[in-house]
Each structure stands twice: as structure tokens, then as C-alpha cells.
Amino acid sequence: MKGIDPEYAAFLKARAELVDGPLSGFDDLPRLRADYEFRSSCLPVSMPEAIQWRNLIAGGLPARLYERKDRKGGRPLVFFCHGGGWVMGGLESHHAICAWLADCCGSRVLALDYPLAPEHPYPAALNALWSALNWVSVAGAAELGADPANLFVAGDSSGGNLAAALALLARDRKVVCLRGQLLFYPALDDRCATPSYEQHRHNPVLSGEMMRWYWRQYLGGGTPPGESGPAPGRTADVEGFPATYIAAMELDPLRDEGRLFHEKLKRSGIPTVLHEGVGLPHACLRAVDHSAAVREIYRSAGSFVQAFASCGGGP
């Protein structure tokens, strides 16, 4: 890829020696999911020494809680939705990402498994995650040792879509109060028509064709008329959204969706931070050991959480 960060290019080269070309098996879902899981773990990622984790059930969903070993007081909780095109991924594929996020944010991170498409198309995943988020806000935060007044939603790629959709539900239903949302290279608009889609339509990490296929699996029969829940970037009125952090990667077909959402929030007076990942493609967070540019994403996300957590939410 032209203009790619040299350190990230070395990461891709090392992984290419272990995998057979780009992600494949789109006509064979079990094979696709197995290939994705292998790519997520074939290059081991170091784990932050200060973080511990445990599995649990959160609001009816399998979950994993990440927390610092040396900080036991109430503090922010990041409710994390994994990526994988709504059809792949889970607790294992995003294990290291969540651990590093907990370390850099100085927070607890709750990672959730959710029903995958196409077996469970929209709104199955969103509804399941909404139930779990409600559980966290009402009773779960205390059980998890977190501060319910310092609740953030987060996700990468399709998980960023789900996090933004949860923020939209929280605003409209007024039963969950969010301190902020963190969206890492989020998929926000099912029309797939921004200039970055054309510019990076043949990107081997995520091509325009691949992204359109993911959307078809998620939406099933298409976007419900008049409903922006499955595509939060199409929301006309963003007033009332929480403070927002967006990481948009320069070499990503989804780049402009993140930029446009940032601008829309900014025009409505929503506190928003846009981190531009120069020289980075989609799905880069696993290269924390290889790329200083990737480590900077975690650092800036941590600064966002620490800046927007309420004063009473620290340890």
C-alpha cells in the first residue's frame, strides 16, 4: 500500500508469512470465521503487565472484564463492542486490544460477545448489546467495581458502528447516561459512497467490495425505511450525543465516514476528538507491539477517557 507507515508495513510482512493472502472464504462462513480468528492471533501480542481479566455473563451475554491490578476504586467503564464485519470476531479476537485499552485509559473495559450475522441480522446484535448496557447502567457497574456515572461505549469497525448505535439509543430512550463514545475506524454509513471508498476500493486489508458484503449480511433485507440505527452516520440530528473520540485511518475505505461524523458532531456543539492515523489502514490496533503510530491511537484514546470522566470517577 502506497504511503503505509513503515513499522506497520513490517507487521503486515511478518503476518503475510503466516497467512495465505487476504482474508478469504466469503462463500464459506465457517472458513471465513476460522481464517479471521487465526489472523487475529497468529502474531502474538504482548499483554500489559498491570491488567488482569476474568470471564462473566453481563446482561445475558458472554463477556470479559479487564481491570488494573493495582487500582481497586470506582472508575470509568468502557463497554466494548468488537469488530469483524458483524459476522466474525469475539472475546478472543479482541483480547489484546481490550487489555491495552484498559491499560491506556486507566479504566475497566467490559468486552461483549453478541449474536453474529447473517444468522442474526440487524437488529439482533444491537438489541442484545442494549440489554447488556442497561444491565451495566442499572446494577452491573457496581458489581463490576466501576462508576455508573462514568460509562463509555466503544468499538472498532463494525463494533464502532454498534457503539455509535448504542449512543443513539441512549440519547433517544433516556435510560442510560453515557459519558462518551470511542469509535475506532467505525463503519457508519451503509451507502459506501465516500471518496475514500473509491480511493481505497482495492485495499487488501479492507476493500470496498468486502465492506459492502459485510453490510449485506448485517442488514439482511436492507436498511429499514426512516431508521438510522443500523447506520448512525446517516443520523440527521446528532444533538444530545455524548463526547466522542474517532480514530480514522488514512488508508481505510471507512476514513471519510469517521471524518464526516466528526464534522457533523462538531457543528452541533458536541465535544469531539478526531485522531488521524497517518499511514495506517483499517484494523490496525493489533500492531501495538510493532508501530508507534498504533500506540499513539491507544494513548490518545486514553487521554480522551481521562479528560471526559467525571471528577468523582477516579480511583
Question: How would you describe this protein?
Answer:
- The chain is of the alpha/beta class.
- The chain has a single domain (6-313), classed as Alpha/Beta hydrolase fold, catalytic domain (Rossmann fold).
- The protein is built from 9 helices and 8 strands.
- It has helices at 6-16, 29-41, 95-105, 124-144, 158-173, 195-199, 208-219, 255-267, 292-308, and strands spanning 51-58, 61-68, 77-81, 108-112, 151-156, 180-184, 243-249, 272-277.
- It has an 8-stranded mixed β-sheet, sandwiched between helices.
- It is globular and about 45 Å long.
Task: Throw out a few tags for this protein.
single chain, 9 helices, alpha/beta, Rossmann fold, 315 residues
The largest pleated sheet is described as: 8 strands, mixed
How do the strands of the widest beta sheet line up side by side?
Answer: 1-2-4-3-5-6-7-8
Mean of all residue-level pLDDT scores? 93
Tell me the structural class: alpha/beta
From the spread of the alpha carbons, the general shape counts as: globular
Determine the N-to-C terminus distance: 43 Å
The DSSP helix count reads 9
Unreliable runs: none
CATH topology: Rossmann fold
Strand-helix topology:
Blueprint: H1 6-16, H2 29-41, E1 51-58, E2 61-68, E3 77-81, H3 95-105, E4 108-112, H4 124-144, E5 151-156, H5 158-173, E6 180-184, H6 195-199, H7 208-219, E7 243-249, H8 255-267, E8 272-277, H9 292-308
Parallel strand pairs: 3-4, 3-5, 5-6, 6-7, 7-8
Antiparallel strand pairs: 1-2, 2-4
Helix pairs in contact: 3-9, 4-5
